[in-house]
Amino acid sequence: MAKFMRISQSINLYILIALLQFIFVVGSARSAELADNQFATFWIEFRQAVINNDKTKIISLTYFPFEMRGVDDSSAIQLLDEKSFNNIYERLLAQTIFLPVRDQIVPKPMRELICETKSLSSEETENTNTISFQQFEFEQRNGRWRFVRAFLEE
C-alpha cells in the first residue's frame, strides 16, 4: 500500500508540473497577444497623427529623451528633448527609404511608408517590447508604447 501511495504521489507531482508548464506557456502567449493589441492601438494613433501632421499627438506618443543617430554604427547617439525633436521631426519623415520591389529599387519617404502601413505586429521582432519599422523604433516602457528612437540618414 505504501508503494502505491508513493507512485500515486509521483503521478500527482508530474501532473502538477505539466499543469504549471501549460499555464506558463498559455500565460506567455496571452502576454504577447496583449502586447500586440496594445501596439496595434498605438500604431493606429501614431499613423493617424502622421497622416494628419499632428505634431502635438506625435510628441504625446514619443518618449523623451528621444534617441537619434545616424545609420552607421559608429554614429553617436543624440538625446533630444521635445524642442530638438520638433526641429528634426520633418527630416525624419522626409528621409528616403529604398525598397526592393520586384526587380528594381523604389525610393519612398518614411511618411509615405507609415501612411501605407495599416498594421504592425510584435511577431516581426524577437522582442515583444520593441518593434522596428524601417528607421523608427518603438518600445513598451512603463506599460505604454512610445516612439523612442530613429535613425537619420544624412
**How many domains is the backbone divided into?**
1
The total of helices stands at: 4
**Secondary structure: helix percent:** 40-55%
* Major sheet summary line: 5 strands, mixed
**Assembly category:** single chain
Tally of DSSP β-strands:
7
CATH topology: Nuclear Transport Factor 2, Chain: A
Shape call? extended
CATH architecture: Roll
Taking all Cα atoms into account, the compactness measure Rg is 23 Å
Low-confidence stretches: 12-35
pLDDT averaged over residues: 81
Structural class: alpha+beta
Order of helices and strands: HHEEHEEHEEE
Would you state the CATH class? Alpha Beta
Describe the structure.
This protein is an alpha+beta fold and 154 residues long. It has one domain (2-151): Nuclear Transport Factor 2, Chain: A. It is built from four helices and seven strands, in the order ααββαββαβββ. It has a five-stranded mixed β-sheet. Strand 6 (136-141) and strand 7 (144-151) form a beta hairpin. The protein is extended and about 80 Å long. It starts with a helix and ends with a strand. The model is unreliable at 12-35 (pLDDT under 50).
